[in-house]
Amino acid sequence: MQRNNKHFFIQRILAILWLALIMTTACAGTPLWTFEPLTATAIAVPVNGTAMVQYRVTNQSSKSHTLIMQPILGITQITTGLNVCGNPFVLSGKGSSCILSLQINGSQLNSPVTDGPVVCQQGNQNRCYRPGSTNILHITRSLATGATITVNPSALNFIAGNNGLVTVTNSMGSPEPANNVVASIPGGSNISVQSTTCGAVLAIGASCTITFAAPAVEGPTNIDISGSNTNTATVPVTVTPVPIATISVNPTTLLFAQNSTGDVTVTNNAGSPVAAENVVATIPGGSNISVQSTTCGASLAIGASCTITFASGTQEGPTTIPIAGDNTNTVNVDVTVTSQPQISITNPVLQNRVVTVSSITPLSLEITNNAGSVVNANAITVSNKAACPNLSVDDSNCTSVAPGASCTLELTSNSPYAPCTITVSGSNTANSPTTLIAFSHLGGLVFQENAGSGKVVIDAAQGFNSQWTSGLLIIAGAASFDNGVANTNAIVVNTSCSNDTNNCAAQRCRNISADWYLPARNELSAVRSALCPNGAIPCNFGGFSSSLYWSSTDFQNGGAARVLEFPTGIAGISNKNNVRPVRCLRAFTP
Questions:
Q1: Is the pTM higher than 0.70?
Q2: What is the mean pLDDT of residues 436-460?
């Protein structure tokens, strides 16, 4: 019985060992990381030279691995360069890889190297892998070359489309000059030697340069540099992508009116690695849109912005316009050129569009962008004030007015003018409405002005109704059609007036103050022409009623004086004892 138990126990031990052998074999057949040779792995290195061997190490498992190479005498791991493995190095997941770069130092090789490299899981020397048997290292040392060259840097990176150079030095310990030093570009590579200063002979201790260029990304590509009597120095050359500046554009949908302009702002984002070069907008064929101006220039610094201004005289769109630089992404802007906005003067009513001279209270003129407009009305202002040049305009409220919205132009003046026509327009408006404005000065509305001198008619609130005179006498010196002051002076001293001043229109004007007077017939006609040119009630300005107004011009028949009908301006006569409306005048000087 004991013998049978012993036999059973031995069988179990053998089964376990067999299973372990099978699992070990399975693991060996499916390495967790693999090696792909990028250079020759069987080479002879001169005792005074160096060489480079490279493998691509790739993670074949889904787990991350931190790896380290076991040291090999005479071989140094290079740990700098694009995608070059560090020491230790991490392969983060399946398919991740790096380049294991090994520099062979001929002077340090005491014996041939016929194995490796061996790369292990850091902290676990039992989990190690090496290349397949045909790709392991086979390194031997050969006789010294005549001259020993070194190359700096030992690994070269440069940007596609640019160039990079290495410096080749014939070591001070070389016994002879280095002859015919050249770089050998491997077949299939787009890297080329742009220039070299090495020449036929490189003296002991001297240096020269070899400049490489490449149009496209590649590498690392191992390029051998040697002379006819030198060691070979292998330089891994990596051509990297052109750094891309990332630009953004605001807005990406632009709307502006025909015969005007629209702006976009281009920004080289703060996270860009380089300045954006030659940023431009490319107008597609057949479009009438043009670039009116740009501030982008040849180089747009990281974090900086510039402006591109578009213009068009015709409606179109949306038209897609790409904006890009030589080294940037492309941003498309959809540009639509619409009909121009229509504006109107909506407040106050015409009769109240009066500027009070030398007042701090402005005339507030309301401008409305019609609700049917598609875009904002921009930079609205008084565009023509030739008839009242000293009119001041504050248009700060009218920079940009949305469809259906309104803004206010604030008008002031220290100079009096007869009613003048002003024009209002925007930088992109389809129309330019006009309006008359009047000027209030010294208690009345200006109806005549020349070089700062002129006349005003008293405000409607100060007008009154009166007989011309209660007496029916002919008044000598009161027959002028143009000189109301002379007429008034003659009337107020005549007994027809002085005996009944309350019913004497001329005296009631003079009672306001000494410089007010009853207008002569033609002066009254000038008032009507300036303030009621529309010939209808209400008059443009002045608050006149539909009536016959007294002038100071006597008809000279004893019982009548001359009148003027508002709003028609028709002249006539009326009995002096009729009660009619009166508007007094006064003159002013600068």
A1: no
A2: 98
